[in-house]
Amino acid sequence: MTRQAGGARTRRPPAERRAEILRIAMETFAERGYQSASLAEISARVGLTQAGVLHYFSSKAGLLTGVLDLRDSTDIEELGNERPRGLAFLRHLVETTRRNTEREGIVRLYTVLAAESVTAEHPAQDYFRDRYQGLLALVVDALDEARDRDEIADDVDTGTTARVIVATMDGLQLQWLLEPGSVDMTQATELAIVRLIGRDLPAAPGR
Prior knowledge:
Helices cover 69% and strands 2% of the residues. With 207 residues, it is an all-alpha fold. The relative contact order is 0.11.
């Protein structure tokens, strides 16, 4: 409900209210983690009762799922209809780190929830397990494509290299969150990938 001039109250559209709940939940989970954040706290920040929030999301776990889906939709929009191939996909990963420096809230949310998900019975455990498996598969495919195109050497271990690339990106995000001025995530990510594959990456589109 919102108040108009003269004191009259109007009901906000459900889609608008749902988006606001997701935004507040995303901020709260990023600040406090899923386990420490309560549905009561999120409800109070939104300006609804807990029953009001549960009208849009069936449970706290359902709210978490909505937040993660929202985050994924951002990544899908950035990737487009078809992912880049070979070394161009590795350049895409570097450019992703550049964009992440402009969205600290999303990076913090991902980092906090990913760390929490290793605990027993965490509702996002399957999500992060599947996400890591999917991301690793994409990086392996890109490295295999690069090898088939003679963009990298035949002796590059694509499976291990993919894991090191993903681990490097995660580790740099953590350092950046703890001390933003201490690391240039974009530069460090590109340096690590170039050293791992022994080849420079293609220039970013438009650069």
